[in-house]
Design a protein that fits this description.
3 copies of one chain form a homotrimer. Chain A has a 7-stranded mixed β-barrel. Chain A has a 5-stranded mixed beta sheet with strand order 1-3-2-4-5, covered by helices on one side. Chain A is elongated, with a radius of gyration of 20 Å. Helices cover about 15% and strands about 30% of the residues of chain A. Chain A has 5 helices and 13 strands. Chains in contact: A-B, A-C, B-C. The interface of B and C includes residues 41, 42, 94 and 98 of B.
């Protein structure tokens, strides 16, 4: 068993989905259970999915599993978990992680066939999250903060290709606007290239563009949270 | 080794005892070590207990282990851990988790007999915590907050039977008083049944009555902490 | 795999080094990976070290590994990790924990020779941290807070021998100055010897002198952080 994180803030399904998607490529194939489940007790379905490369996904049908599964080759087979003999009964109304998802995952890990866990679902009907898209103009980018890590680094919904479209490459001075406040930053390959305290725009270890402060906490300094709009342009 | 939690707030023996009691039924029999130990270095005894179903308990004699052990069939045999050859020496005065409890548990897990760890104790003489009892009147309940989880959900010392005595069942509108402030709430089977932001009174996954806010943090909104008094009555 | 902690505050290399040094004596020999790496992406070297007693150390050459390695018998052999076939490629510029250190440690754990990981380094040229030294006068001590644990206990760069030089032994009343504020404290063998709320000066479980408050949080009460200067003298 590998415990990836217990650090997703409550109810943040999109953050959970993104962390899963960026972490699983570094995890061996197996049964991946994820639970960020504000809709527990509603009619959202508990699901188990068979993906590519021998990977299985178990969790709520709220989009949490799909960003990862879609990026890792898609879904070959999906079921709604309905088989009571593969659950911990009586099933509580508010903790399906314990009573439905973990037992289903344990059964899959022991070799139980996916189809035994419940009734088949069309993978196209699974709920998918809308990951915010950036607006990349000719001289300016409107981006969204997708994730803030424990260092306060802010991951944006941008790639280095997006930055290049407005002329931002490593070395470019950049201006940022967050919550009506403007900041100077510098595009760099790594935060060690800038002075302590400088804001840096860089490609992070998952190939997403992120904002950081060398030896500081960018989210705190910029008062930025997940979902925050960030404008960027060459200074 | 299964690591249940490192999230008990410092010195909160009762919270530790309640988490242990509600978690162990989902854990396989084995040697359970728990350390919330503000009295380390005083004359409180280090103890090892043999319970029912092949379960052992190791920790300080401050009540931490007893709520769980009593609920899971009681204690068959108890010793004060005094055998130095089963300790890590020299024993520090402030970290018996490392020097006494973990080594004793490791020896038990390896098959050492309980009696070898020290001198026998009468299980009746072990220290037991007083778990606060609710006052259930004909129309009103005076309850106590026992535990607040990381979602801000507040577990009370109530069962659904207590609520029924004052006429509160799923669907009933409820009035709450916490710290001289009053709030409206609704009794429901799950927080997904109420609107986002509503306060809900529900039976949680451990069959205790709890307060939550759908997609919110009840402890923060109600300024309620462990030990807080909560009054409830039908609205 | 034993996961020691994920609780070192970002960028605090010295805290990481001290936690490693006090924890490893309780860990079995093996391959120890540590990553507190604010200089990732700069010219600081990734290193792997062979120490005494079958211990290996892997991490950044910023002093993080050396306090532990020096205390546990010194370093027999050191390499800069340069072998790309023992890395996860492409190597990111900001997360060598994932791409260089963990893969190198995994190879060592599988029996790969240290020399295969890269080019030899002189152990004397590895970067060492300066651990602050106390000033112990004839009647007064000027100490530094090295570490604050999750209970708020403050570890100082002092031993019981330092305290004895100014006449502080268990039972002595002590005066403290932190941030221009003065406090009374008592030297004791354990915090259980003083009343709840009292500040206590004691030898902690790692044989360092620490400040604590019985059933309280000393760091919060004294507004003390890592690096804080603490003056002590007999009251």
């Amino acid at each position: 068993m590998i415990d990836i994180t217990h650090g997703i803030p409550p109810q943040h399904v999109l953050q959970g989905a993104l962390v899963l998607a960026k972490t699983l490529p570094y995890m061996p194939p197996g049964v991946h259970v994820a639970v960020v489940d504000p809709g527990v007790g509603s009619d959202r379905k508990p699901v188990a999915l068979q993906g590519a490369e021998g990977r299985f996904y178990v969790g709520p049908d709220n989009g949490l599993l799909l960003v990862a599964a879609d990026r890792l080759g898609g879904i070959e087979q999906a079921v709604e978990i309905t088989s009571e003999e593969h659950m911990l009964t009586p099933v509580s109304r508010t903790f399906h992680g314990r009573d439905i998802f973990s037992p289903a995952a344990a059964h899959l890990a022991l070799g139980v066939e996916l189809a035994e866990l419940g009734q088949s679902l069309d993978p196209e009907e699974l709920r998918r999250l809308e990951v915010p898209e950036p607006q990349v103009g000719s001289s300016r980018i409107r981006a969204t903060a997708l994730y803030v890590d424990r260092f306060g680094n802010i991951q944006l919904n941008l790639t280095s290709g997006d930055l290049e479209q407005v002329g931002i490459v490593p070395g470019t001075k950049v201006e940022l606007e967050v919550r009506f406040e403007r900041y100077f930053a510098i595009a760099a390959r790594t935060f060690a290239e800038v002075r302590p305290g400088d804001v840096v725009v860089y490609e992070d270890a998952y190939r997403a563009i992120a904002l950081a402060i060398n030896q500081g906490d960018a989210a705190h300094m910029l008062s930025a949270r997940v979902g925050e709009e960030v404008l960027l342009w060459p200074a």
